[in-house]
Design goal:
302 residues; alpha/beta; Rossmann fold; three-stranded parallel β-sheet; 11 strands; 15% strand; globular; binds nicotinamide-adenine-dinucleotide
């Protein structure tokens, strides 16, 4: 059956991340001020880098700048090593030092790791209380069971965008494109918890367009520019584009914005949508980690 013709005259509401990111950062800045008053030093975020690559350095510098803006002590920890075995050893040792440092409240490790250094090294080493990007199995398990733990900042940002934009999830048909452990799957669990009916699509999904066509909410996290086009969407769908791709020197998402904007009721731009919210939420996770570590200390000292 041919898809129903869609109107291309309407224009979707643009869901910008910056205003929400500002609200979140303002709250974090206030919390940091209270923390400094109580401790005499700021909470620390350690960004661990194992093998520098230019694009990842841009992202990390943005995080460190955001830390400075709200008063968090951000630091870059370079892991030495000339071969994967040495890098893996040094990476584990660096994370263990940071676990033991009371001034470091949260740790993130820049991905992807160098070839030959497995994610398992990080997973085995990182203290779940400092795992502010939710990669430790304890945090992943808490999310899976519906309890509060640390969730990956990007998945959190996509959900927060939906919440703060006043979009109803209860009973909605949602399609998540992408099944990675850091974006697609955590989102699928969170959307299910919010009473959406979720279909998870991936690279082996047959007839992606047919799945997308049924969805009230489409979240795209595939890393494929132009994967979702306006003619695939149900008129009035909400489109959350998590993708970040560089095409001819420009950052673009996974959604063909021009055609999708004409059919959707709301859509996130790339850049400027989910990305700014991800950074702000990472800072709020850091602050929450610092507060939880205080509570854990009080509990064990009582
Ligand atoms: P990934 O490569 O780990 O996973 C991609 C997923 O997309 C896989 O599950 C794969 O099966 C699926 N996929 C690939 N091609 C597909 C296709 N043609 N049809 C359907 N599914 C397909 O990537 P990731 O780490 O989950 O990241 C996804 C995207 O989100 C990337 O573009 C990444 O740059 C971006 N990202 C954005 C932020 C942010 O702050 N906005 C943060 C992290 C990642």
């Amino acid at each position: 059956m041919n898809p129903a013709p869609v109107s291309t005259t309407a224009h979707a509401r643009r869901l910008e991340g910056a205003p929400f990111a500002t609200e979140i950062r303002d709250q974090v800045a206030a919390d940091v001020t209270a923390y400094v008053a109580a401790h005499g030093y700021p909470p620390g975020l350690a960004v661990v880098v194992c093998g520098r690559s230019a694009p990842s350095m841009v992202y990390l510098e943005r995080i460190l700048k955001a830390c400075a803006q709200v008063g968090i002590a951000g630091s870059l920890v370079d892991v030495p090593g000339d071969n994967p075995a040495e890098q893996a050893r040094e990476l584990a040792a660096a994370i263990e030092r940071l676990n033991a440092d009371p001034r470091v409240a949260g740790i993130i490790v820049q991905m992807p790791l160098p070839t030959g250094v497995g994610l398992r090294v990080v997973v085995d080493a990182i203290d779940p209380l400092k795992d502010i990007d939710g990669i430790h199995p304890l945090n992943a398990g808490l999310l899976r069971l519906g309890y509060e733990g640390f969730i990956p900042a990007t998945a959190h940002a996509a959900l927060e965008m939906i919440h703060r934009s006043g979009i109803t999830l209860r009973g909605a048909d949602a399609v998540v494109i992408g099944r990675s452990p850091v974006v697609g799957m955590p989102l699928a669990f969170m959307l299910t918890k919010e009473d959406a009916t979720v279909t998870v699509c991936h690279s082996k999904t047959r007839d992606l367009a047919a799945k997308v066509r049924n969805a009230d909410v489409v979240v795209v996290a595939a890393g494929q520019p132009g994967l979702v086009t306006g003619d695939m969407l149900k008129p009035g769908a909400v489109v959350i584009d998590v993708g970040i791709n560089v095409v001819e020197g420009h950052i673009v998402g996974d959604v063909d914005f021009a055609s999708a904007e004409a059919v959707a009721s709301a859509i996130t731009p790339v850049p400027g949508g989910v990305g700014p919210l991800t950074n702000a939420l990472l800072l709020s996770h850091l602050m929450r980690a610092a507060q939880r570590q205080d509570q854990a200390k009080e509990y064990f000292e009582a």
